Amino acid sequence: MDSEELMERQDESWKSRLLLAGGVVGALTGLGVAYLMVQRAERRGGDLELSSGEGLRLGLLLLGMLRQVADLASPDVE
Fold first, then answer.
1. Does residue 75 form part of some domain?
2. Residue 12 pLDDT more than 80?
3. Which of 17, 9, 26 is nearest to 62 (CA)?
4. Are 49 and 41 spatial neighbours (Cβ–Cβ below 8 Å)?
5. 48 neighbors 38 (Cβ within 8 angstroms)
6. H or E stretch including 54?
7. Are 20 and 28 in contact (CB under 8 A)?
8. Is the predicted pLDDT of residue 11 greater than 80, yes or no?
9. Cα separation of 26 and 61, whole Å?
10. What is the mean pLDDT of residues 45-55?
11. Has residue 11 been placed in a domain?
12. pLDDT at 22 over 60
C-alpha cells in the first residue's frame, strides 16, 4: 500500500467517523426531546397535547437550527 492509498483511506475514515458521530448526537437529541415531551404529558395527566402555537414555535425553532447547520457547510465569505 503506497502513501497515497493510505491518505485516501484516512480521509474516508474521518468522514465516516464524523457522520456516525453526527447521527448518534442527532438520535440522542431526538430521544431526549421525546423523553421530555412524555414527562410533560404525564405531569399534565395523560395524552400528549401540543397546541398549534407550540407546534408553530417548535417548527420555527427547528428551521432556525437547520439554517444554522446549513451555514456551517457554506464557504466563508469575507
1. no
2. no
3. 26
4. yes
5. yes
6. helix 52-73
7. no
8. no
9. 15
10. 86
11. yes
12. yes
Radius of gyration from C-alpha coordinates of the chain: 20
Amino acid identity of residue 40, one-letter, is R
| Residue that is written with C-alpha cell 405531569 in the block | 43
Domain span at residue 43?
3-70
Q: What is the rounded distance in angstroms from the CA atom of residue 5 to the CA atom of residue 11?
A: 10
| Count of structural domains, the chain | 1
Is position 19 within any domain? yes
For 8, the grid coordinates are 485516501
3-state secondary structure 15-42: HHHHHHHHHHHHHHHHHHHHHHHHHHHH
Percent of the chain beyond pLDDT 70? 88
**Residue 13, in any domain of the structure:** yes
CB 57: neighbour CB atoms within 10 A? 12
Query: Do 26 and 20 touch, CB atoms closer than 8 A?
Result: no
